[in-house]
Design goal:
By secondary structure, the chain is an alpha+beta fold. It is 39% helix and 16% strand. It has eight helices and six strands, in the order ααββαααβαβαββα. The protein has a four-stranded mixed beta sheet.
Length: 183
């Protein structure tokens, strides 16, 4: 996978290292590495982003976002607010219903995320998700973008519906039936 990631990129700024997690036990504890593989992107000892598990598409997106064609991003420069807002808008519109949560529907990493995915799955809602723990920029930026301070956050057609409490209210009122269903 290393060769595929590096082809066509500005490799002067990209260094890829691989190690055995058992050899770096203190590092893994201090960076809350709970499973392998965990792919982490650092700049000057600062964690920029992490992908937990073998998710080639997510890993590729992560690497391309920091080492792709845009040289200002390749060297870890901060993202302009306009660029971040465009990225957030793109993520929010990735599917008709998008859930921003901690973890994944298969492995939620907090009780609120577990509960909301349970509700959506019980109602057979067709939704995409984004793990906010994998990208601190998105995690913090979306709070400001949507003026909603907590997670999970559920969007429909690019509009914020709300968090778990709102989804529970929608469940009680029958409004969830209006969301697209899995075929």
């Amino acid at each position: 996978m290393h060769n595929q990631l590096c082809s066509g990129m500005n490799q002067s700024c990209l260094f890829i290292f691989q190690t055995n997690a058992e050899l770096l036990e203190n590092f893994c504890k201090s960076h809350q590495v709970s499973s392998v593989p965990t792919i982490m992107l650092f700049k000057c000892n600062t964690l920029l982003k992490a992908v937990v598990g073998f998710k080639p598409a997510d890993i590729t997106t992560m690497v391309e976002s920091y080492a792709g064609a845009d040289p200002s991003r390749a060297n870890g420069a901060p993202v302009e607010q306009k660029d971040l807002n465009e990225r957030l808008k793109s993520l929010i519109h990735k599917k008709e219903v998008m859930l921003f949560m901690k973890g994944s529907p298969a492995e939620p990493r907090c009780g609120f995320s577990r509960t909301i995915t349970g509700i959506l799955n019980d109602h057979k809602i067709d939704y995409g998700y984004f793990d906010i723990l994998s990208d601190e920029e998105v995690r913090q930026g979306l709070k400001t973008y949507s003026n909603w301070p907590t997670y999970p956050q559920l969007y429909h057609k690019g509009e914020l519906l709300g968090g778990l409490d709102i989804v529970k209210e929608m469940q009680e009122s029958g409004e969830l039936k209006d969301l697209p269903k899995v075929d």
